[in-house]
Amino acid sequence: MTRWIFFCLLLALPAWGAVGDPNERLADPAKEALAREIGRELRCLVCQNQSIEDSDAQLARDLRRLVRERVAAGEDSSAVIRFVHERYGDFVLLRPPVTAATMLLWATPFLALGGGIAVILLRRRRAVAEAAALSPEEARRLAELDRGTA
Fold first, then answer.
1. pLDDT in tens, 1-52
2. What is the C-alpha radius of gyration for the chain, rounded to an integer number of angstroms?
3. Which of 61, 80, 103, 134 holds its CA 20 to 30 A away from the CA of 17?
4. Residue 138 per-residue DSSP state
């Protein structure tokens, strides 16, 4: 039983980590709330499916610190997000902008599926056309074979 409790405490250890470290928080609650809101819109580049507010990776800590420095300096959320976006690219945004590249990225599976279906249909059509057409010589030979076995 003691081992089980110890194991459960070990699993909960990351929850007690440095995410939301009191030393990182801003003194002004309004600015801290703004920094957290901004942090929820930025992706951790290490974890990839977590915001920097939810991640305990070192890079996420650095990004949280950077966001809080900019918010403390008086920048609004769009300026902070724009600064981080310019530095790290579209991937740092949890909701990247819709561009031709992202539309192509989302359309690629459908294009591949459509291309695969087209190839299958063309091959089937070609196979049916080849099997249906007998030359006069082939028809005569087939008729001879049928007469020979009957």
1. 777 666 656 665 554 444 455 556 777 778 888 888 888 889 888 887 888 8
2. 32
3. 80
4. H
Q: Rounded CA gap, 13 and 16, in Å?
A: 5
DSSP state of 15: G
CA–CA separation, 29 vs 35, rounded Å?
A: 10
| pLDDT (tens digit per residue) in 80-116 | 999 998 998 888 888 888 888 888 888 999 999 999 9
Q: CA nearest 59: which of 90, 84, 27, 23?
A: 84
Residue 51 · residue 42 · CB < 8 Å: yes
Contact (CB, 8 A) for 44 and 50: yes
Neighbours of 106 (CB within 10 A): 9
C-beta separation of 52 from 63 below 8 A: yes
How many whole angstroms separate alpha carbon 17 and alpha carbon 82?
A: 29
Select from 50, 25, 44 the least CA-distant residue to 35: 25
